[in-house]
Specification:
Layout (H helix, E strand, L loop, with lengths): L6 H7 L22 H7 L7 H4 L5 H13 L6 H14 L17 E7 L7 E6 L5 E5 L4 E6 L4 E6 L7 E6 L5 E5 L4 E6 L4 E6 L6 E6 L5 E5 L4 E6 L4 E6 L7 E6 L5 E5 L4 E5 L6 E5 L7 E6 L4 E6 L4 E6 L5 E5 L8 E7 L2 E6 L6 E6 L4 E6 L8 E6 L5 E6 L4 E7 L1
Antiparallel strand pairs: 1-28, 2-3, 3-4, 4-5, 6-7, 7-8, 8-9, 10-11, 11-12, 12-13, 14-15, 15-16, 16-17, 18-19, 19-20, 20-21, 22-23, 23-24, 24-25, 26-27, 27-28
Helix pairs in contact: 4-5
């Protein structure tokens, strides 16, 4: 059972009335007790009970999930929160998971974590600011967070539109933080100095996902379930959209190559694609293995795209210059679910989101050797995205399932 909670289902929690769905086929798997009816009433307004009865969470993760659902609109009363958590922990205890695979290597890494000030925030994407601080999107908390790692001080900027589902984020040259309002169909801009928000509707691209600025200051974004790629001109607010030729491709991560060409992954298909910035015509590239599902992508100085193959547990590469491909089995195995990925000084770094604990993986393309580091003490909780720090000495990471952000310092 994946820990991914679909945006559409979460958004629905804010608008659907709380009503028990006793016809759910898994209702009989809920143990008897005073909290059974509360679970039926509050946990079936936006998703099926299977997400609970087949879930695999420890006590802290169950608590985090309950708070995420409350942030999305689940109408628990204060006196029901802890009994709900206790009921879920007792009824559905954590099962053995895919173990972390230790692989020794030449580099030392230290990981420091910070628990977020808002329970159930579900930090999704991190952003390393030029001044050494970190921003992050709180997908379920509906805010943009800011952490000063030197002092541990957090700032919380609540979105103007409630339950917006902030997802991806990036920064412009003026220091404004731009993010995708994944649940409410808009691109948002935050001025951290004033706390002022500006919103730009994305029309048919109802679930904007990952944003990225080009060299001309145009903001490009993917829209996963809408199957679109869009561009926003911040000066005019004008939005243009292009539909991906392959149906249900789920355009996801994005990178620019050295020539300014925008590439993106189609994570529900074995494809990469690039888009013409003038005509917005999309050109797709088939990857060799039809079972490949490229979730996040990163690019190095040689214009080689690195792929986290989520479905197969592989690290892949695609050379944009000559079309060459190659892949390597991830240390955590076929169920390791590689996810967040980046490059730093010619080295590929990525997260194995389905190992216990998560594995931070280092791959050296020259030697083709792996090294792994356990994401401790929290366990990681699925690192959905990461990027290098401004000084190039580490990585910022958002740990969605455990309500933490982290910095991995490379020694």
């Amino acid at each position: 059972m994946t820990k991914l909670i679909f945006a559409a289902a979460i958004a629905a929690a804010a608008v659907l009335p709380a009503a028990a769905q006793t016809n759910d086929p898994d209702v009989g798997k809920l143990p008897a007790g005073p909290m059974k009816a509360v679970v039926e009433q509050n946990c079936t307004t936006c998703h099926e009970l299977g997400r609970i009865v087949y879930g695999n969470y420890n006590a802290a993760e169950w608590a985090n999930n309950v708070h995420m659902m409350m942030n999305a609109g689940a109408s628990l009363t204060p006196d029901q929160v802890q009994p709900m958590i206790d009921y879920l922990v007792k009824s559905f205890p954590e099962k053995p998971g895919n173990p972390f695979k230790a692989v020794a290597g030449p580099v030392k890494v230290s990981i420091k974590e910070w628990e977020l000030p808002v329970p159930g925030s579900r930090p999704h994407d991190p952003l390393a600011a030029p001044d050494g601080t970190m921003f992050y999107t709180a997908h379920m908390g509906s805010y943009i967070g800011h952490l000063d790692p030197k002092t541990g001080k957090f700032d919380v900027f609540k979105t103007k539109t409630p339950i917006s589902g902030p997802h991806g984020l990036t920064m412009d040259k003026e220091g404004n933080v731009w993010y995708t309002g994944n649940f409410k169909g808009y691109i948002g801009k935050l001025n951290p100095k004033t706390g002022q928000f500006t919103e730009y509707k994305t029309g048919a691209a109802r679930d904007p996902h990952t944003p990225l600025f080009d060299k001309n200051g145009i903001l490009w974004f993917t829209s996963q379930n809408s199957n679109m790629v869009g561009r926003l001109d911040p000066k005019t607010g004008d939005v243009k959209l292009a539909v991906v030729p392959t149906e249900k491709a789920a355009p996801y991560g994005m990178v620019f190559d050295s020539k300014g060409k925008l590439w993106f992954s189609e994570w529900q298909k074995p494809k990469l694609a690039w888009i013409d910035e003038k005509t917005m015509e999309i050109h797709e590239v088939n990857l060799p293995n039809t079972a490949t599902r490229p979730r996040r992508i990163a690019i190095d100085a040689n214009d080689v795209i690195w792929i986290s193959d989520y479905s197969r547990g592989y690290l892949g590469m695609y050379d944009t210059k000559n079309g060459a491909t190659k892949e390597w089995a991830s240390p955590g195995g076929p169920k390791s679910q590689p996810y967040g990925i980046t490059t730093l000084n010619g080295i590929v770094w990525y997260d194995e989101g389905n190992t216990k604990p998560n594995g931070l993986v280092r791959f050296d393309p020259k030697s083709e050797k792996f090294q792994t580091f356990p994401v401790l003490p929290s366990g990681g909780g699925v690192v959905r995205n990461m990027m290098p720090t401004a000084d190039g000495k580490g990585l910022v990471m958002a740990e969605s399932g455990v309500n933490h952000v982290a910095i991995a310092t490379i020694q």
